[in-house]
Amino acid sequence: MKLIFEKSREGRACSILPKCDVPKVPIAQSIARQKKAALPELDENELSRHYWALAKRSYGVNDGFYPLGSCTMKYNPKINEEIASLTGFTGIHPLQNEATVKGCLEALKIAREYLCEISGMDAMSFQPAAGAHGEFLGLLLIKAYHQKRGDTARTKIIVPDSAHGTNPASAAMAGFQVINIASGADGCVDLNVLQAAVGNDTAGLMLTNPNTVGIVDRNILKITDIVHKAGGLNYYDGANLNAIAGIVRPGDMGFDVVHLNLHKTFATPHGAGGPGAGAVGVKKILEPFLPLEGLGLEGDPSLRPDSIGRIRVFYGNFLVVLKSLTYLLMLGRENIAGISKNAVLNANYMMERLKTKYKIAYDTTCMHEFVLDIGPLKHDKGVSAMDIAKGLQDEGFHPPTMYFPLIVHEALMVEPTETESRETLDAVIETFFRLYDKAQTSPDALRAAPVTTVIGRPDDVKAAREPKLRY
Questions:
Q1: Could you tell me the residue range of the domain that residue 13 belongs to?
Q2: What is the CA radius of gyration of the chain?
Q3: Angle between the 166-173 and 131-148 helix axes, to the nearest 10 degrees?
Q4: Are residues 287 and 415 located together in one domain of the fold?
Q5: pLDDT in tens, 75-108
Q6: 316 and 354 assigned to the same domain
Q7: pLDDT tens-digit profile of 215-234?
């Protein structure tokens, strides 16, 4: 497929914008572009075809099973999109007087209240644009809290080796030193290792529960207590909230700050279907440090003297919050827990059936996700986690998360979510079984997969060492 620049022909164009109906203001030559922008020139027909062809190469939850572990790629109800498309929400401007958008502000207020109740927090900010952005904000809040108290020696954030990859990156970006601690044999936090790691320099701990291998840490209250007694704060990564929403709250586990992936747990488009939103909830002790929002009273620095300032303009991705609010209103209080229960049921159903042929990394009752260990296949037949994943592509399914968490060397992390039917799960399970059998009889065929996709298996090493970043 040709790049859009390769299809470009000088002088071709399409009229898609109405004529300007406001006075034109000339741009000063000092800031004006000195040469024509290198933009492709196509007619509307070719432009439409190009992006339609790209769309057909993409794969999303509307195409089929999408079991990315730790990413919760669930179906997004279309009513969410319809509500967020109402002109009363889309026809506003962020700079207009707040008195004219009271309905929108009320929607944000209700969303805050619901999400605070679900997470066990006291206040909520919608400014972060994604989960990792929310992590960054949460860590800045922890930093501001310690600095306000003059406790500047607290420079270290403890991160288990099973943490999400963004956790240590966010901590480093916030200026902390990352202390990595090993998990126990059960995949959970080793209390003795944690106790040895905390001290007067501990700013906090980053953790998700259930953790990255899909297990609830039964020692969670002891873990958060150890950190609190050392003078640190506890940060909850909300990526796995889909397993416990409506059943148990991070705030009740002893966490002081949490980010919620609205594009995971609360059914707004994920990834390229975004944008996302990484709402951050906090306990009272951190509320004074939350970002300034909007205009007027909420955006007045004199009323929030300890605020860290802004990390994004206005109220963040407003329409994304609306989609999540619609989802919550549609479910109602009594059905929030049903999401989690069905997610856990689906994951355990898949795991129990797959374990008859595949090795389960941690063979115990899981929550919303589980990890397949392809190590035995790699050892016996030379078939890796990558090979199984590519084989799934040939069968028309999106692969699970590969090689994560890092504590399982040949990992496939599977999260079916609550929105998949038993029929779909059975079809995927049977496909996994066929791939296992193929690994026994025709391992070379799996190592050559995929052969039915538009692009075959790329040379990952060459792509990493010789990246082509410009056309």
A1: 1-57
A2: 24
A3: 40
A4: no
A5: 999 999 999 999 999 999 888 888 899 999 999 9
A6: no
A7: 999 999 999 999 999 999 99
